[in-house]
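tool=predict chain=A
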Amino acid sequence: MRRLIFARMIGSVLLGLLGASALAQQNGVELDFDYFKNEVQPVFLVKRDGNIRCIQCHTRSSGFRIQALEEHRLFFTEEQSRMNFESASQFVLPGADPLQSRFLTHALAVAAGGDPFHGGGKHFPSQDDPEWRIMADWVAGATHRRTPSDVVVRIIQTNAAGDNSSIIDPVTNEIVGEITDIEIPHGIVGAPDGSQIYITNESMHSLDIVDSRTLRVKRRIPLSGRPNNVAVTSDGSKVYVAIMQMPGAVDIIDVASMTKIKTLPVNGAIHNVYVTPDSRYAVAGSIQTRTINVIDTATDEVVWELEMDAGIRPMTFSTNADGSTKSIFVQLSGFHGFAVVDFARQAEVARVEHPAVPGQEAHYDGLQGAPAHGLGVSPDGKTVWSTSKVYSHAYIYSLPELEPLGRVFVGQHPEWVTFTPDGKTAYIGAAGDNVTYAVDVEKMEVVAVIPVGQVPKRVATVLMAVD
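tool=predict ok
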């Protein structure tokens, strides 16, 4: 321990005499500003259980100083980021052993090699902590986020009346993690490479980007209004956010810069937005104007719209043999079932109404105008699943025939549907029971009932990084 303290004293002296830039040249390592801005700075804003946020103390620090966020801003300005970078750099030995940098040791647990005391408490229990690793990568000279070495499939259930989202392992059907610090999480989608998760934050009117390694919010992007659902392109480059305020818009987010690049006016406040399986279009539906707005993702302009006879609720898609969009399945306000829209003809071609369940009492309380509010096409494209809040069941139909195949009880107020990539299991949040149902797709039988948070609605299958 004495040797370690002595080594750190020598490092501090060297840092004071030579400065971070000189030591960087000496070690052949340059500290990257963009990596610091986009990956390291979010660590200062995170709320960890039992700790205050770093920014709460360090805006008043005479040593390592973090700039205070400007009023109503959710992230640092470019100028503030530069100042934070210069401040943090004074406590770093670039390219050296991580434990030679006070920036890395001060908030690290003593048992893991950290300093004896930190007035802001110990935030990182070990050197394997994902957030500590992000900072250590910066000190080592990282210029961009590491590509995940491996990814795993997870089911994430947002809890609409809570401040958390539950992470389910589809192998064990157990909760294996939690995303916190997002009050009223709404829509959710994962980055295709497993690096990030996008959740719309109704309380702050922001799109929250969650690092899948840390499960922490790394950036909150201000939106043009209150958001609902969210979708991402297959190449991961753009995110589309439904804005549930009149006159109506879809916000478009550039993932690389983590900025809103466009607010696209559409016909009506948007309840849900989706990207088609071939990623050529974003499809946005409005309850108020009863319209489906189809956006070309190459130009980010509306290319056609269709007015239905009722408000647009959840949607899903079937595809042609070449992967292009064949049909949009649409649930409608006040209708217990779904409509079918031919994508090429831009017209409704069929409507399916769910029959009553014998012996099951119809439930009409709290439907919020949506007796059916959850749709999904199975990964093999052979079935479409539709939930019923009236009868607490999921109804399953064959594709393309739309013949009824069966139904399964999935709790009070069942909502959205998602599938594992292999199509073997479907997951449905039961908003009235605070559980998520796992259903064997082939047998159409419940295999697990998983307790989650308050009023689970939107659910998604995502890839998550494993470091």
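The CA atoms of residues 273 and 378 lie 19 Å apart. The chain has six helices and 28 strands.
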